[in-house]
Amino acid sequence: MYCITRTxxxxxxxxxxxxSYSQVKSVFEYSDVSRRGLSSSSTTCSDRHDDPPNSxxxxxxxxxxxxxxxxxxxxxxxxxxxxxxxxxxxxxxxxTTGKTLDGGDPRPEPQDRLGEVWPSHCDVLVVxxxxxxxxxAYHLKERALQGLNVVVVEEDPTYTRASTVLSVGGIxxxxxxxxxxxxxxxxxxxxxxxxxxxxxxxxxxPDMQFNPHGYLTLASEAGVHQLEENYTLQRDLGAKxxxxxxxxxxxxxxxxxxxGVEGGxxxxxxxxxxxPWSLLFSLRRKAVSLGTQYVNGRVTGLESxxxxxxxxxxxxxxxxxxxxxAEITLANGEKRNIHFAILVLAAGAWSGExxxxxxxxxxxxxxxxxxxxxxxxxxVYCVHAPDGPGLNSPLVxxxxxxxxxxEGLGGNYLCGQSPHEDNEPxxxxxxxxxxxxxxxxxxxxxxxxxxxxxxKLHTSWAGYYDYNTFDQNGIIGLHPLVSNMFIATGFSGHGxxxxxxxxxxxxxxxxxxxxxxxxxxxxxxxxxxxNEPLYEKNIV
Length: 540
What we know:
By secondary structure, the protein is an alpha+beta fold.
């Protein structure tokens, strides 16, 4: 309706004035978007979409400030702008202060503070306000500014159980899948620019506390061939890594016992670890400053409708769903609704549960395939070893998957190990099994670094992986039969380092209709339907 009305107004104005519409400078550019964006026939407004997302001109572009809750009011307001912009030849938009174009008082700006105004309508609803959901919200708002209403639903506003803040904060390019390498390379670039990208006026710039000491991935004789293959791929994609023999490793790191080690790959640049909380806090703070609203609650229901004009299976009945409304249960038990145009599922370890609310994994045909993501509990142990490796110590990954890294300057180290598949701990709580440290972790790191024989366990905690049981890789993109639901989950432990790249990718799909920077089509849900896993062979 909106596009038809807008075209009619344009033609009417041209008849009245004799002036071609193309002669009038417009604020917007409208472009058809493929199904990977909004839908097969929908239209979207974006700022000049041929400009790069971070261009200065794009950053300075002010979108029309129609921040009403109801989309009908927003549409009427935008149509009003079009008429005024045509007749007055200006880029019409309602200012935030002063008078409007017709001389009246400005419309009141709705308050963005949490809990003060309930967002009954929005353009994009992001389920999950951790680092992935906050990155998606940030990238959408940074690109679209006031042209897009974004709401994020987060159940735990304190993030005490969030996977983000309970991780060890590592970032590496040492993966076996090209897309993962590229995502982490962009993630490192984003971290370096975070003080500029995520800075908020009047507040201290974010400090990611990045430690650039790299990863050291060790391999035994049985695994060295795969390590060499990974190394070649990483170098081809521009990663700064170095392959080292056991003798070279011993020479560079005298504290390292190389018995049983055939070789290793050391990250020379753009690898290390950082403060996960700083990244999450900075992304959320910046997203809020750009107009994102965060809602504290849990998604307990999703309402959908069948698209009658879409028939994909042989029974001649449409099986394509379009989500319309989410039921949000607040902490006090109250239930409220949010209507939306697009849903982004970034609920981490609990994404499979959200998918089941709309029938994913419970239906027939394509809908019978669930989102194969479940919580897996992982322990992190903090130990004190006064004679342990010094400042040049990288994050070391033993051939059996056990890792350790330095934590600060006081002889403290973080360490852990992913348990075997048949020994996965229960996930109903975040209790730590210290016996696992004594039986599995300590013997391994004490063998690799003899000075760890005398360590003392100081503290420990547990967190959740959003574990993709299909192939331990992220699932990114539009669901094949839920026409307006994008998925960003299942990263199996490396989501924090790839959040920036995934946030940018989801933004590109929604606003531009395609991947413009890193092509992530191989990480789509379709590979699950086709039973074509894309295994990541370097999971820690």
